[in-house]
Write a structure and sequence with these properties.
This protein is of the alpha/beta class. It has one domain: Sugar-phosphate isomerase, RpiB/LacA/LacB (Ribose 5-phosphate Isomerase B, Chain: A). About 45% of the residues lie in helices and about 15% in strands. The protein has a 5-stranded parallel β-sheet with strand order 2-1-3-5-4, with helices on both faces. The protein is globular. The chain binds D-ribose (RB5). The site of D-ribose has 8 residues, from helix 3.
Length: about 150
């Protein structure tokens, strides 16, 4: 499995912990940055990770900013991306099972590193259930439902 990861200046330390954790698990990580504490614009990193996942260069993505919200909004503008902001494992599990979310987002100013690593493990270890959920996912992209 290959994971694309990206973050803004609010989440550099949290991102490092997640990268270390994934690497310890033997999972390949593509780090799109930022690795600087200098203030930056989260949409840049949200879009980079989103395109890597949408283009099949990574299986799943992880995005972290202060809240997880701004960076997920940016990622969700890319066709085929379903980025879900989570702060507890029930949502992280269900967004894989039912929504086939392909990017997990969370806030470095919202949760601690212990919860973050639990979210990451839950997200990447939970498969999509398919079935009736696929129809609903198809409806998200279908202009007939606008
Ligand atoms: C940066 O200060 C902050 O706005 C950003 O990390 C994020 O929380 C936006 O949604």
């Amino acid at each position: 499995m290959k994971i694309a990861i990206g973050n803004d200046h609010a989440a550099v330390d949290m991102k490092r912990e997640v990268v270390q954790h994934l690497t310890d698990r033997g999972i390949e990580v593509i780090n799109f940055g930022t690795d600087s504490y200098e203030s930056c614009d989260y949409p840049i990193y949200g879009k980079k990770v989103a395109h890597a996942v949408a283009d099949g260069k990574a299986d799943l993505g992880i995005l972290i900013c202060g809240t997880g919200i701004g960076i997920s909004l940016a990622a969700n503008k890319v066709k085929g991306i379903r980025a879900a902001v989570c702060s507890e494992t029930y949502s992280a599990r269900l967004t894989r099972k039912h929504n086939d979310a392909n990017i997990l987002a969370f806030g470095a100013r919202v949760i601690g590193p212990g919860t973050a690593l639990d979210l990451v493990d839950t997200f990447i270890d939970t498969p999509f259930e398919g079935g009736r959920h696929q129809r609903r996912i198809d409806m998200i992209e279908d202009p007939e439902n606008d």
